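[Discussion] Sanity-checking designs against the backbone

I'm trying to build intuition for which residues belong where. Below is a structure token string of 272 positions. I'd appreciate it if someone posts a full sequence so I can compare it with mine line by line.
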């Protein structure tokens, strides 16, 4: 194989420099970014920067105003606290002065018992204190005479009269106590009276129960209550005096009518 045939069969790009040159010329002829586009981009950046600066300035101005407002509020609150503190100091001073005056008065009263006795009458303005002071001297002059006439052991006549008065008061108290009515203890009782069967005459049964009479016993209302299987029981109320009538006596007297009554139960018992 000759060299020509070898190069003909080999895949070699002999014209690559021409293609490179043609590509370079193509790109050189392509229009690049215009100046107007570059200016527009620069202007937008400058606007963003200016807007950012303005925002920063506004934020700084707002912070400064808020700080000034807070400082003003703090100053006003401090002034108010100072005024309150001054008023409290004044109140404390007044209390101290009043306490010192009170201590001095107490000391004076402890030293002079006579002054202590006459001190409460000084503030009176209706003239009673003056009258007491004026009338105190004659009383002191007459004390010696009264002491001379005083009997140490008293007289028998006074003792007798006091004993009579005491006895009279005791008698009057006993009479008033006797007139008051004595409280009577009473109870309200509800009885369940049961017959033998449904053939029992309930009217006759109630008549038998109400026939029981005793001092301190008062019968009340009654009614028939169904029990079952046609049988009814008599439920009757009564009021008794506890000292005179008891539940045992009632049960004993009622169960004596054994022809009509089977049993007696206490359904309710209340004190009146």
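Best answer:
Here's mine. Compare freely.
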């Amino acid at each position: 194989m000759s060299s020509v045939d070898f190069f003909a069969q080999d895949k070699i790009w002999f014209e690559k420099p021409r293609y490179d040159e043609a590509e370079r010329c193509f790109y050189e002829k392509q229009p690049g970014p215009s100046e107007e586009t570059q200016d527009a981009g620069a202007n937008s950046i400058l606007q963003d920067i200016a807007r950012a600066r303005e925002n920063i300035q506004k934020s700084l101005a707002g912070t400064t105003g808020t700080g000034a407002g807070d400082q003003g509020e703090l100053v006003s609150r401090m002034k108010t606290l100072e005024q309150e503190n001054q008023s409290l100091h004044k109140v404390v001073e007044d209390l101290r002065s009043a306490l010192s005056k009170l201590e001095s008065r107490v000391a004076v009263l402890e030293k002079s018992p006579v002054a202590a006795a006459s001190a409460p009458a000084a503030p009176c303005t209706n003239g009673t204190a003056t009258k007491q002071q004026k009338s105190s001297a004659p009383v002191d002059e007459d004390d010696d005479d009264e002491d001379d006439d005083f009997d140490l052991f008293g007289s028998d006549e006074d003792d007798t009269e006091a004993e009579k008065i005491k006895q009279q008061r005791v008698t009057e108290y006993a009479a008033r106590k006797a007139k008051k009515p004595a409280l009577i203890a009473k109870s309200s009782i509800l009885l369940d009276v049961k017959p033998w069967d449904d053939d029992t005459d309930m009217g006759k049964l109630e008549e038998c129960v109400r026939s029981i009479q005793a001092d301190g016993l008062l019968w009340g209302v009654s009614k028939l209550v169904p029990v079952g299987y046609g049988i009814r029981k008599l439920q009757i109320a009564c009021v008794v005096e506890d000292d005179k009538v008891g539940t045992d006596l009632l049960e004993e007297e009622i169960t004596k009518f054994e022809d009509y009554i089977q049993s007696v139960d206490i359904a309710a018992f209340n004190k009146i």
